[in-house]
Amino acid sequence: MTNHTKPPIYWTLFTHEVWSIHIAATTEGLCFIGSQNEPVDELIRWANTRFPGSTLLENEELLRPYTIELAEYFQGSRKQFSIPFDYQGTAFQQDVWKALCEIPYGETKSYSDIAHQIRRPSASRAVGTAIGENPILITIPCHRVIGKNGSLTGYRGGIEMKTKLLQLEKH
Questions:
Q1: In contact, 142 and 153? CB cutoff 8 Å
Q2: Yes or no: is domain 91-170 CATH 2.40.50.140?
Q3: Whole-structure pTM value
Q4: Would you say 164 and 142 are in contact if contact means Cβ atoms under 8 Å apart?
């Protein structure tokens, strides 16, 4: 019988100015960006759910390509990410996450805008649920989705983090 060990997940604590965020990647690409100032427990819980049986290995060097692009984003010099992603989700979630990546830097869309974009106009609530499951904050820019009335609705990283990201992109 062959041993099907799960590939490891590499992680580091990314810090830049006021930002302190756990990030993780597989050998395929970035798979997790956590909430600002959250303990590593957030990453551990996520990994146990999404990659059960995988070992978490701290490896700052392996994550350097990701931390470089995140730092450039926070400095205002990067508007789009070129790093590879490794995200797992249903076909619907992946459609939603791809649509999020098409929202231009500094702009926002509503949940119903995204529902229409993926040709599921009555699925605004399901779109909101899929956005809430986005494992890669910032790089899959779910912070750019707001309520139809312009309100800052829920965000896995918290409303304060969402507000800071939107402000960063306005300057």
A1: no
A2: no
A3: 0.89
A4: no
**In the chain, what are the domain boundaries?**
9-74, 91-170
Which member of 142, 145, 161, 165 is catalytic? 142
pLDDT per residue over 111-166, tens digit each?
Answer: 999 999 999 999 999 999 999 999 999 999 999 999 888 888 888 888 999 999 99
Residue 29 to residue 146: CA distance in whole angstroms = 27
SS (HEC) of the chain: CCCCCCCCEEEEEEEECCEEEEEEECCCCEEEECCCCCCCHHHHHHHHHHCCCCCEEECCCCCHHHHHHHHHHHCCCCCCCCCCECCCCCHHHHHHHHHHHCCCCCCCEEHHHHHHHCCCCCCHHHHHHHHHCCCECCCCCHHHEECCCCCCCCCCCCHHHHHHHHHHHHC
146: Cα within 13 Å, side-chain hemisphere:
15
Residue 142 is among the residues annotated as catalytic for this protein: yes
Q: Judge whether 44 and 101 are in contact, CB under 8 Å.
A: no
Give the number of other CB atoms < 10 A from CB of residue 72.
14
Q: Which residues contact 81 (CB under 8 A, 6 or more apart)?
A: 69, 73, 139
